Amino acid sequence: MKELICIVCPKGCHLKVDVENGCAVTGNSCPRGAEYGKNEVLHPVRVLTSVVRIAGEEKACCPVKTDGGIPKQEIFQAMDALKPVRISRPVHLGDVIVKDVCGTGVNWVATKSFL
User: Fold this and answer.
1) Pairing of strands 61-66, 2-5
2) Residues 6+ apart with CB under 8 A from 35
3) Distances (CA, A) of 107 to 15, 22, 99
4) Phi and psi of 15, rounded to 5°?
5) Would 97 be classed as within a structural domain?
6) 18 lies in the same domain as 56
7) Of 4, 37, 61, 91, whose CB is crowded by the most CB atoms within 10 A?
8) C-alpha R_g of the chain
9) How many CA atoms lie within 13 A of 28 on its CB side?
């Protein structure tokens, strides 16, 4: 039995996921909580945030995030994909900075514009 706190909505339901019984979820107050509990046990993913350097500028960085969840086992590789990246102005909110991170189909995107 795995115990989790649901993060889908502000309620924060205390979930219990019975791994040995087909990942049956109890403690959820909505169907989204059941889906979250099952996914968190079988295939946990995280949205990542970071920054990338702006080329030719000593201290300027552009904040970025993934536009979807990255499998937990790929987090370090996804972060490593940003290390060599330098971007040039202009950068617009939502611009794709790195495509298809670790072959997941998820992209690193800019979360702020730099003109």
Assistant:
1) unpaired
2) none
3) 30, 32, 5
4) -95, 150
5) yes
6) no
7) 37
8) 18
9) 19
- The pLDDT assigned to 56 comes to 87
- Kindly state whether residue 115 falls inside one of the protein's structural domains: no
State the amino acid at position 47 in one-letter form: V
Length of the chain: 115
Residue tagged 């590789």 (tokens): 77
Q: Could you tell me how far CA 26 lies from the centroid of its own chain?
A: 25
Per-residue pLDDT band for 58 (boundaries 50, 70, 90) equals: confident
Residues 14, 26: contact at Cβ < 8 Å? no
Q: What is the spatial distance between Cα 30 and Cα 13, in angstroms, rounded to a whole number?
A: 9
- Pairing mode, if any, of strands 49-54 and 86-87? parallel
Note down the domain range covering 19. Answer: 2-43
Listed in sequence order, the residues at least 6 apart from 9 whose beta carbon sits closer than 8 Å to its beta carbon are: 30, 32, 33
According to the model, what pLDDT value does residue 27 have?
Answer: 92
Query: Are 24 and 54 found together in one domain?
Result: no
- Report pTM: 0.81
